[in-house]
Inverse folding.
């Protein structure tokens, strides 16, 4: 397999996680506990697959090119917006991992009140990270090339 196919797969995994998170939230709001459990577990598995693919891609890229980075071109305010989205995405991606793990474990163990208290913070952060992952991908692989072609 050519690892260069991983960025769109990663974006798809992030988008899938966002949909599962949203559906899981909707399910629990309707009292559908089993559906909530399955959807949130699916979101966690999807996010874990994303993380594995993301790391594999960047290890491969470092090995092949000598740099794991993918730079956004100098496009003025668009680059600034990209960097702000990337910075907030990256800053929240690290802490969301233990937040998600802890939230899920509390739910699985039936510690519902502590699960709820943490989930109120975990869900919006996890959803933001998933959605902005797709936004970063779109800006980097679609918006930037399109704007570069117009200059």
């Amino acid at each position: 397999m050519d690892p260069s196919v991983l960025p769109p797969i990663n974006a798809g995994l992030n988008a899938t996680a966002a949909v599962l998170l949203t559906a899981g939230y909707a399910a629990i709001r309707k009292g559908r506990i089993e559906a909530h459990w399955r959807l949130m577990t699916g979101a966690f598995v999807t996010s874990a697959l994303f993380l594995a693919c993301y790391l594999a891609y960047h290890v491969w890229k470092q090995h092949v090119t000598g740099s794991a980075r993918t730079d956004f071109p100098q496009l003025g305010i668009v680059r600034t917006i990209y960097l702000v989205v990337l910075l907030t995405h990256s800053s929240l991606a690290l802490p969301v991992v233990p937040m998600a793990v802890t939230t899920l474990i509390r739910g699985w163990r039936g510690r519902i009140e502590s699960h709820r208290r943490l989930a109120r913070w975990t869900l919006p952060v996890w959803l933001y990270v998933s959605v902005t992952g797709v936004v970063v991908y779109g800006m980097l692989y679609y918006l930037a090339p399109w704007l570069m072609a117009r200059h």
